[in-house]
Amino acid sequence: MSQKRRRQDESQAAARPLKQKRVFTEQDRNRASIYEDLADEKHGTRIQAAKKLMDEFSPAHNPDAAKLSDVFNRLIRGLCSGRKAARAGYFIALTELLRQTSTSADLFSESLGNLQDLLLLINKLTKPDQNLPQETRDKLIGRVSAYKALLQASVLPGSSDNAEIWESFLDNTSKLARDTPWLREECGLMLCDFISISAKNGEKSQDAIRQIVSKYSDDGLLQTAEGVALWLTVQKAFPDLKLPKDIWHKKDPLHSTERTRLARILCDSRSSNELDSEQKKKIKSSGSWKPQPNFAWRVVMEQAFSNFSSVSKLKQFCIEVLDNSLFAEKASAERKLWGFNLLSWAINFAPADLLPAVFTPNFKRTLINQRADPKRDLFEAANSPLEAVVSRAEKDVDAALKLFETLVTSETYVHFDRVTKSNTLSKLVSNVADNGKLAMMDMVLSHVLRPQLEESNTTEEAHKARVILANLLVSMISRHTKHEGSINQTWTGKVVQSLASYAYFKSKQAEPPISDDSRSMLHDAIVRCTTHVLPKLDNPGDWLYSLAQYIQKSSKSSDHPLALKADRNVIDSIQESQKMMREVNKKLKSADVSNREFLQVFQLLFALILLEVYSGDADACDMLAELQTCYASMQTGKADAQVFDLLLELLLSFLSKTSSLYRQFADLVFPVLAKGMTEDGLESLLDILQKKETLAGQEELFESADAEDIGENGEEDYGDDISIDSDVEIMSASEDESTTNGIKDSTKGVDEETDEDGEDPELQHFNDVLAQTLRTSVPNADAADSSEEESDMDDEQMLALDPQLAKLFQERRQATGGAGGPSKKKEKSKAKLQMTLFKSRVLDLIQIYVKKRHASPVVLKVLIPLLSLMRITSSSELEKKAKTTLGTLFENCDRDKQFPTPSDANELWSLLRDIHDEVQKDASKQHDAICGRASLFVAKMLMLSDRTNIRRLIDEYGKTQVQVVENGTNVQTSFFTEWCGWCMQWKHRADRQNEKNKKEATGPIQQDKGGKKDKNKKNANARIESS
């Protein structure tokens, strides 16, 4: 029985079909790789994957319809995925694969059926699950993406047979837009793109477009932001198509009577009174907010750019639609963010002529308010319009001019860059293309002449505006010289000449008239422009000469009288200097000139001093007379060393000014003067280094008038709100006020501070007057001996003294800087900075002299003053520069094997003793180290002149060592160890030289002996062979 049942089970199992296992082929593996690449975040990878998929299922390859159907299913499901960039990659693949498959009707029907089947498939695969919110959102986004792929693939509508399918498609799309507010924008954008593309087909697509408008009208969607965009897109693409009535007045959403409603629709903020009951049921308000404004805003703005050809009409539209909604005083931060993003787009894409209309009043107010404080919510967002201004200016010259004109005609442009914490105006002017530089320059200069101020046009306000405009011109030239190899001398020269016409002449066209402060500021702008241009020129003298000649020729015109108020002697001196300068220029043009370098020096000096004279500098007139004397002496052949010293004094007068132009000028001129500079001239430079870096040192170095004027040609104070970009060289306060690391004694610089911080005569006088007023004496050691009568006062006496005490303390406050008086502390600090800067420039000259004449015995005079400067200065910058200068001297002498050895050796011995005395004074480690190098430098010269000097050198070092031990001074050990090491090196070098000399002397003798030995051996061998 059991065997029979077993046989029946086996027979039934054999009758059942076997389940086949799916085999994963290589083709499946490749396709899986393609699906993975379609989700890659790199755009290029996704494109390549889509191409592979299209190539595999190309109709030319007769692909399997079933596999192609599976691929379509996979691509539609992939649109619902939020993984990486899957939605973007699958959308491209689905669109292109649909377009390719539709070319073969058989393949399309076999794989997808008809269009109705395709729509059902899309709806089925993207059907959301209401219980899973995130999955529902992904599925609905995937459905819209699939619909968009159908439109872009041009699969529907195709012919009249597809009218029902097209209507079904519109029903689905409209239902999504109506019931799902957060997808309404995507649906509207999809249809607007389709309408724009369909315009190429003309009348063939009108029926389909008419159905879209009809469907949106029936569902109440035409009165949404997306409906407005669709309406305007249809009007632009199909102007003959009839649109529904009673939607917009005269079928124009941009009509003046519809702008308030249009703004509310675009902001999605219509009240319930504006919608009827049917619309309330059909249209749901969007419950979500996006940082980017709805695409309908851009469609509306593009239509406005097209409709309104005048700036006034467009500006009125922008005020009513944008300004009063997005930038209203009570508008939310979210709406203002929309406004900033929208206006950034408008600045980039608006026609250049219409750009001024974009800058509406509320927009400018909101922009400045948000950029005024970094703590504001929209501080960074408000920067996007400013970046758009600079970006548009770089690409479009006409737009740059319009933007600049718009900003500088605003009442806030004087403070615009400051309050917005940006460099918008500066970048706008500086980044303009080459073909627009001249036009931009002319526009800036026209505003310098007539500043456009909306509220007040007073002299003070005009001065502030001219400061800003002059800064813009300087930054324009500065950027041009920094980022380009060669400069355009045409427009740079025109900028400087135009500034000169405003600075040095009275212009009848200026409104308001240019004040003296403005002229001084414009002269400073000329100096700063020249500072940027000179390093780029092969011959700076010609450029300055042309500027001086321009001023001379302009002064002959009655329409341009000179602003300089000078007597006849000064005018005659100017004319004589102009004549000499023309003579110098004529000689420079001749090829056989012998003293070309000196003539170039005179050309530079004449031109620069003349500019200072025109600016009203009183000292420049005396400098001009001295320069005429020097030139006349050179012409008569009577030029001597005094001429070089006088030219050096003129050069030092320029260096006392704080502008970096004069440092560049010194670098050009001094190498020529260094060739003929006398010992007295060098000592005049070294004397400057020994002056104190204090107010007393400044007064000692300069005359009182010069001490007050020094530095005024650099950075001028234009008020708290206005500052002019300056080329003044300022050393950091930390370097200037702190001493160098490694100071052995905190008493460094005490000598220079004693006079300043010790007993103040003014304070002593104040104490005396106060004591006299109170009938007391100054508190001192004898105060205990004061009588009781002097210490006691009744109330009436104290009240009687109140007015006298108030007046006394008021005078004291004014004397010490209070109540509008000059601050003595600030004066000291300013004097210290100016003296430090002046010394630094003098050190630059000395370094040039050392490089040019390091083999001259005169150069030895720089050793002790530079070592002393390193010890007494409180500036680490000066200490470092002095050390570098000495190091340059030592290195150049060792490199060229030329030493400044004087004819009298006693000078070197005296110098060596001074160095050893200097090293024993309290100073920094760097000072001791360079003293050691200087001592070895002198010792080397002594040994080179006479090797027997070694004994006296040993005695000198021994004497110094004894003084260090007896006096207890702190000298670095390296001072003596380096000397010992130098002695051993000298010994080894001398031993090698002696050995070399010995070899050279004995070499020929050894060769003769060797030759004789070889000859004897050869004769012996010959005798053996013969025997």
Automatic annotation (TrEMBL):
GO MF terms, alphabetically ordered: rDNA binding
Gene Ontology CC terms, in alphabetical order: nucleolus
Record keyword Nucleus present: yes
One Pfam family per UniProt: DNA_pol_phi
Major localization listed first in the record, in broad terms: nucleus
Biased composition (Basic and acidic residues): 991-1001
Similarity remark: Belongs to the MYBBP1A family.
Name recorded for this polypeptide: DNA polymerase V
UniProt source species: Verruconis gallopava
